[in-house]
Amino acid sequence: MTRIADLPTPCVLISRRVLESNLQAMAERCQRLGVRLRPHIKTHNLPEIAQRQLHAGAGGVTVATPQEAALAARHGVRDIFVAREVVDRVDLYALLDVARSVHLITAVDSVDGAEALAAVAAAREMPMAVRLEVDTGGRRCGVATLEALTALARRVLALPALRLEGIFTHEGHVYGAADHQDLIRQATAAVQALGAMGAGLRAAGVPCGEVSVGSSPSAKTATDFRGVTEVRPGNYVFNDGMQVANGTARLEDCALTVIATVISRPAPDRAVLNVGSKLLGSDRGKNASDTGGYGLLIEPERQVLTRLYEEHGVIDAANGLRVGQRVRLLPTHACIVANLARTVALVDDQGGVIEVWSNRRYA
Ligand SMILES: Cc1ncc(COP(=O)(O)O)c(C=O)c1O
Prior knowledge:
The protein is α/β, with parallel strands linked by helices and 363 residues long. It folds into two domains: 4-11 and 247-362, Lyase, Ornithine Decarboxylase, Chain A, domain 1 (Beta Barrel); 35-237, TIM Barrel. The chain has eleven helices and 18 strands. The strands form two sheets. Strands 1, 10, 11, 12, 13, 14, 15, 16, 17 and 18 form a ten-stranded mixed beta sheet that branches. Helix 4 packs across helix 5. The longest helix has 24 residues, at 180-203. It is globular, with a radius of gyration of 21 Å. The two termini are 25 Å apart. The relative contact order is 0.15. The structure holds pyridoxal-5'-phosphate. Pyridoxal-5'-phosphate is lined by residues 40, 62, 83, 170, 172, 214-216, 232-235.
């Protein structure tokens, strides 16, 4: 068996034990809450993990792009929600190609978007399921008022090529909460707001089956899921520095770590690693999720990666590191690392590599 010690650095490791425990914990929480779990697999884009999520009880997956949908469909996923608006004609046809073989749902937040989708769906005689996006505070996509939502829903209902399945939101603004208590408050408020939108739509005579919320911190902490049918956490499979900073995960709940090598000790207080933004990205989080750096050294001891270059990572208050030493890092944002890495190694607790998975984006 290959050993972690034999892998070239920087390399990305996924602890099988922690991954499986995270999958189990979220599946059990959703079961307790009485909501369907439809994990966002852009976190990893690895069919190997998607299959484990489905096995653990997920009822379908979420993706962000037609390409991710095609990848999931190629690997046997049969129920896919593309939770980002698709309006370009080329992308729309790519979506329809995927929809030939799976139950595919797409996101709509405008009349223009609905009409663009309806036009290609009608041309191919393939009715498409849609969910309308609601802005519950993130100020990204989505309609923000019940009036606007009802008006959009009525326009969608008038398009025979579209089937209105429900509504969804991504309450990602909770990452910017001031502290953990504020995060719980904001998460609960966003989830309640979407539940209320669903009820409001139905009261206006518009059918609204699915009410879907999605973010890892809110899935873990919101205290009221009434009126919600589905949650779409993504990051929870790995967890990362942001989730530790905002109090929704402990260090030992983090499945994805990076092994790097100390390549320079140019000053007593400075150590430089052979990993930079080309693998770690450059997220630091914000407010409650702010990690204070671009990654956290967790072995041999906690130290913060304070500066990043493309292929260098600098620790400006270094302690006890020597040139040539291998260290282990917790990334600030694991989804970015999984996206940028060409391969990731599934590892056991004894230093062994169980399997190496390829990032299909680079296939
Ligand atoms: C639409 C949508 N749903 C769900 C998620 C999952 O959220 P998280 O990364 O907090 O797990 C995201 C993340 O960006 C998203 O954009």
